Amino acid sequence: MAKTKIGVIISTTRDVRFADKPAKWLMDNVQKRDDMEFELLDLRDFDLPFFDEKASNLWVPSEDPKVVAWQKKLAEFDGYIILTAEYNHSIPGVLKNALDQAYKEWNHKPVAAMGYGGVGAARAIEHLRGIAVELKMVPVRDAVHLGGGEFLKVSPLGENGEMSEVDEVLQPSLEAMLDELAWWAEATKAARAS
User: Fold this and answer.
1) Which phi and psi angles does 80 have, rounded to 5°?
2) Alpha-carbon Rg of the chain, whole angstroms?
């Protein structure tokens, strides 16, 4: 059986975003797994318009070629990890738009999250889980939260250190998240195939 494929989505697009630093740390670490393969999906690369279709693609096929390309890319994966900041106690608007641009492609697949910011994007990840349920996804319990003092050690708003300075703190939650993601990805993959 082919390895489970996981899309890792960078959910911010600002020029001055912090996401690239934790994204590199995340990709370096997930590549050590031999039970799943991972691909980075940067929302900057998809240039999605604001949602302007007749309806969700659950009901009507999407028409915008950029949206269709996004949907086709999402369909390749058995699950997702979303790397998110927290904007005003929730997820970035570009992430919500990207989630809304597909429906069928998300269904019956697990989603995990890594968040960063003052409280490790805990509130954003909670909102993300509610959205995921509406998209018929399986939000996994464990997440990676880069917050508080650890966030300030690596953020340009603080000491701007290397991610290696917080690696020891993040590894246990990363391992738990990936183990849970692997279990759900295999379970839902088998269920979708039957």
Assistant:
1) -145, 150
2) 16
Decide: 87 and 56 in contact? Cβ < 8 Å. no
Give the integer Cα–Cα distance in Å for 100 and 92.
13
Burial of 152 (0-12, 13-18, 19+ CB in 10 A): middle
Give the dihedral of Cα atoms 14, 19, 23, 24; nearest 10 deg.
Answer: 90
Q: Which of 82, 92, 91 is nearest to 74 (CA)?
A: 82
pLDDT band at 77 (very low <50, low <70, confident <90, very high): very high
Instruction: Quote the CA–CA distance of 155 and 163 in Å, as a whole number.
Output: 9
Q: Once rounded to an integer, what is the mean pLDDT over residues 92-113?
A: 98
The helix/strand/coil state of 102 is coil
Residue type, 56: S
Q: Is 68 helix (H, G, I), strand (E, B) or coil?
A: helix
Indicate if the alpha-carbon torsion angle 155, 172, 175, 94 is positive or negative. negative
Q: With bands split at pLDDT 50, 70 and 90, how would you rate the model's confidence at 182?
A: very high
